[in-house]
Structure formats: C-alpha cells, structure tokens
Specification:
The complex is a heterodimer of chains A (about 375) and B (about 200). With about 375 residues, chain A is an alpha/beta fold. Chain A has 13 helices and 15 strands. The interface between A and B is medium-sized, with 21 and 21 residues.
C-alpha cells in the first residue's frame, strides 16, 4: 500500500502545493468557489510558522500579499472572478515593482457575480489583459487535482525566479472534485527562492540594477537596504524616471522581455495523439480531458484527431501550437467561454479555426466535442 | 463504458453521511487498491437536511469527466434520492435503499436491495447516525468499489480513533445484513466480499 497517495480536492491541492513550495503568508477574502484554499491555509500556515491574514476585501488581500512578499515572505492569495477583478490594479503594482507572489483564480461563471458555484473559463483574457498597460503575465492552467498541486509549486518557483506575480487558473469543478495525488517525498521537490542582494547596505545600493541575469536581486523590507518602491516607472535606483523616454521604454521592455526571452523555461504543454492528426483540438483545463476521450472515440471512427493543451496559458506556447495546427489545416478550439482562445488561435496559425463554445456553467462533455469533431473533420 | 469503469452515487439528506461514504470509498479504491478515482459532492447550504449526494467514478484508466451519468450502484437514503436517481441506473446496476426511509421503491427494479439501514444502525450501535457505516458495509458486499479489507482499512484511516469502535460495529452489521440479503447460491461479485469482520 502506497501511503504517499492522498485524496484531495483541487482547492486542497493548491493550498498544499503552496505550503510545499514554501508559502509563509496568505491573505485572502472568502469567495466561492475558492474559499477552501483560504480555510486550509488558515489551518496549516500557523502550524508551520507562517501567517494567515483574513482581510476585509480583495483589494486589501492582494496589497497584503505584495507587502508580505516585499518583506521577504512567499505569499499567495486565492479568489474567483469578482475578487480577481478587484485585484487587477495592485497586480500591476506587483508586476512593475517586480514583487513575486501567487494568485489562484478559481474561475466561476461570470460576468459579475454570475453563478458562484459553477465552473467557467471566462477569465483567460482577464488573466492576460486584466490590468492596464503592457505588462508581463505568467498564468498556469492545471487540468487535474494532481496538476493543481504541482502547478501551484511551479507558480511559486516562477514567481521567485522572475520576480513577478504568477496566476494559477483553476475552476469551480476542479476546485471541488477529489482525485488521487501522489505527493512527492519531502525534500524531493525543486524549490526556487528569490536572489537576495549582497552589495553594501549604503547609498550605492541600486535595487533594480541588472546583475547580468536580467533579474535584479530582491532586498527585503527590514534587511537594512534603503530603497524606494512604488508603482511609478523607475530606473535602477527605484526612483521615478518619468522624464526619460529611454528609461520608460527600457522598463517596459525589461518587464516584457524577462518573460518573452525565457519562454523555454516558462512554457509547458501537453500533446495527445497530435503527431499525425488531421484535426487539432486546442483546449485547457478540464475541457482537455473531455477532448481526450472524444479524440479516442473519433480515432475509432477513422478521424485522426489530436490535442494541444497549454499548461502554461500565458505566455501562450504559440510556436509549438502553430507547428501542430498549421499542417492540420483545421483546429477545433473547445472552451467554456465565447471564444477567447479561438481569436488568439486565429492570429497564431494559418489553420481554419472552428470554435466550440459552451458558456452555461457546465463542463463540456466528450460527446459534445465528438460531435464537434464529426462536423469539423 | 469499459469493464473497469464503475460509477456510484450516494444520495440522501444532509447529516446522513453521504459525503463521508464517498471519502472512505475513494481512499479504499484509489489509495489502497491503486485505482483511479474521481469524487464529486453536491449539497445545499444546510448542515442538516436538504438533498445531498456524492458521486464516485472508479476506473483502471484515467478518468476524463468529473460526473456520474449512468451509475452502476446507487444508494438512496431518502425517498427523494430514490425517485431522482433510480432511473439513471446503468443496465444491470444495483440499487440499495433504506427500507424504512424509502417506503416506495421503484416498481420492477432489478438488483434492488432493501435494508432497514437506519433501524439496524439504531439496534447495533444505538445511534441512527451510524446508518451510513451500515450502508458502507452493505456496499462493500453488494458493490464493486473496493474489497472489504480495503474499505475497513480506509475507515480506520479516515475516522477519529475515539469513534472507530462504534463505526466498526455498524460497518460489520452492514456486512452481515448484506450477506444475508444475497440470495442463497448467488456469487459474490468479488471474492473478498465474503470476508467477515474479525
């Protein structure tokens, strides 16, 4: 009997993954269907020497998370659509000030309060463009409880590595369903921690100076370094550099470049029976699992179909997608929204894009996708 | 559906322990017997009363959809649960009812098992609340989720030690009741189902 296996819900897996990644601070405000992440963090964090803070709303939650990270903690919050909307302003603060943190967005049917208990994939473009200005985004989209655990760990690692907020897009169905998770042996996980500065703690300290790696070391509040942090475009001193066109341009290019130039390290995807496919399916999260069942059935009918599932949704693994989609000629984009990925797929590939959208709070079934395959093939 | 795919639904009222049944059988089938499992739960805002159910999919292969469509096994602890769920049963599927709480079983239903689960719980442990553990014992005999020993082990792992004895009494009573229920000469669905409580 393997006692390393546990039955967990998606929400429990996110909380445990965060703890195993080294989370030492959680601030949040309860919201269906994400609340259990906060509950478990509240129960377990104090026992592991961490802190849980119940905040008055989501604006305060993301602010506390960024503040805690600035003070050296590995920090996370979890929310759903309405709360995710409220967090957008300070998410861009974390992006510009380059403060790592993790936000779990458990997607539910929107817009507005929508349907609190039902799953959707309506926040894909909000995750990419929810806050203003050109900004760097890393967003991960797990499709199973086990992947929710491991992708939450990866989210912390990427946040620490690239000094930026990282999003995990779960959904109401994944959040509340239970599956078996093989938990790794303690100590076997690769855990990334932010680089800390070793320069003298005097006026020569440049908090945003590139050390040659493209990512500046991050001094914690309280370390003894004096530096200025704000949401204003700054130079390497941290002070506003709004009068310099070069400094403004350099900052934006740096923020985007640290993601764009490291795609190989960030991108992750799954391909299923895609090599000889004549019809490619693009799907993320739980929808991709229905797609797999549909693909197996379609192949029994002689329809060569395959799957491309981005695990890293942003930055979208666009090169590999195009490599697979272009030769197929046709791509069926299955998503629980009105076509957020379909539009992107049309930009990225020469293939004919056939959208299969379902936006009714129900997961797309294999039967629905199989019907879509039959019509598209 | 392939031969290894098995869907179960446990329906009742809040407080009858339908969620815990799903947890125990998930642990038994998933962690102790190494199968793939997927468990979902549905309940209202009430902590007691209100329709609730848990649904468990068991398979030897990865499970693609987190829902039960055609259950191979249904437990109904209320008339409402029985009325709502029996027609979803897969061909050859089994229906286990609390004989007292479901006074009107569906007519013509094959593989129908009626046990006074709550009454037997009261008789064996003095507590109606252990009816779900009686049902669990019966499910271990009548269903194909997991072997009796794996289910017993899962109960030990999930329940607090101070409540173990009373729940084991109820579990064993459920095993025995289901064994007696099975028509003489009918084969157990799995050999381990014959194992009785130590």
């Amino acid at each position: 009997m393997n006692t390393r296996y546990k039955i967990l819900t998606g929400n429990e897996a996110c909380a445990l993954g965060a703890l195993d990644a080294g989370m030492s601070f959680f601030a949040g405000y309860p919201i269906t269907p994400a609340t259990e992440i906060a509950e478990l963090a509240a129960e377990l964090l104090p026992r592991r020497g961490g802190k849980y803070m119940q905040m008055e709303d989501e604006l305060a939650s993301i602010s506390a998370v960024i503040g805690a990270s600035f003070a050296g903690a590995k920090a996370m919050t979890a929310t759903s659509g309405p709360g995710f909307s409220l967090m957008q302003e300070n998410l861009s603060y974390g992006m510009l000030a380059e403060i790592p943190c993790v936000v779990i967005d458990v997607m539910r049917q929107g817009p507005c309060q929508g349907v609190a208990t039902l799953p959707a994939q309506g926040d894909l473009m909000q995750a990419r463009w929810g806050t203003h200005g050109d900004h760097p985004v890393i967003a991960l989209a797990p499709c199973s409880v086990a992947e929710a655990y491991f992708e939450t760990i990866r989210a912390f690692n990427l946040a620490e590595r690239f000094r930026t907020p990282v999003l995990v897009l779960s959904d109401a169905a994944l959040a509340h369903m239970s599956e078996k998770v093989g938990l790794p042996e303690p100590g076997s996980l690769t855990i990334v921690n932010r680089k800390r500065p070793h320069s003298p703690k005097d006026k020569s300290f440049r908090p945003y100076a590139d050390d040659g790696s493209g990512i500046a070391p991050l001094a914690s509040f309280g370390d003894g370094y004096r530096w200025y942090v704000s949401g204003i475009i700054h130079d390497e001193t941290g002070f506003p550099a709004t009068a310099s066109p070069e400094a403004i341009s350099d900052k934006v290019k740096h923020l985007l470049g640290k993601i764009e130039n490291n795609r190989a390290e960030i991108e992750a995807w799954e391909e299923y029976r895609a090599e000889d496919a004549e019809l490619l399916i693009l799907a993320i999260g739980l929808v991709a699992r229905s797609a797999k069942a549909a693909i197996d059935q379609a192949r029994l009918e002689g329809k060569k179909t395959g799957l491309f599932r981005p695990i890293t949704l942003w930055p979208f693994p666009e090169r590999r997608f195009a490599e697979l989609a272009d030769p197929c000629g046709k791509t069926l984009v299955c998503e629980m929204n009105e076509g957020q990925l379909a539009g992107l797929a049309a930009q990225l590939s020469h293939a004919k894009i056939i959208p299969l959208n379902q936006n009714n709070g129900r997961l797309i079934t294999a039967e629905t996708i199989l019907q879509g395959i039959r019509e598209a093939y | 559906m392939n031969g290894n795919h098995y869907e179960m639904r446990f329906g009742g009222s809040g407080g009858q322990g339908m969620m815990l049944l799903g947890d125990i059988l998930s642990l038994a089938a998933g962690c102790l017997e190494g199968k793939e499992i997927l468990l979902t739960k549905s309940y209202g805002p009430e902590s007691r009363g209100g329709a609730c159910r848990s649904e468990l999919v068991i398979d030897s292969s990865p499970i693609n959809y987190p829902a039960v469509f055609r259950p191979d096994f249904v437990l109904a602890m209320t008339q409402l649960a029985c009325d709502q769920y029996h027609q979803d049963l897969a061909p050859g599927g089994a229906l286990l009812l609390d004989a007292d709480l479901v006074p009107r079983p569906p007519a013509g239903q094959r593989n129908l098992y009626r046990l006074p689960l709550t009454r037997l719980a009261r008789e064996s442990t003095g507590k109606a609340i252990t009816a779900n553990m009686l049902a669990l014992g019966a499910i271990a005999v009548l269903g194909r989720a997991a072997g009796v020993e794996a289910v017993r082990q899962a109960v030990r792992e999930l329940l607090p030690a101070r409540l173990l004895d009373i729940n084991m009494i109820a579990f064993n009573a459920g095993l025995q009741a289901a064994e007696q229920l099975r028509p003489a000469g009918a084969p157990a669905e799995r050999e381990t189902a014959r194992v009785h409580a130590a």
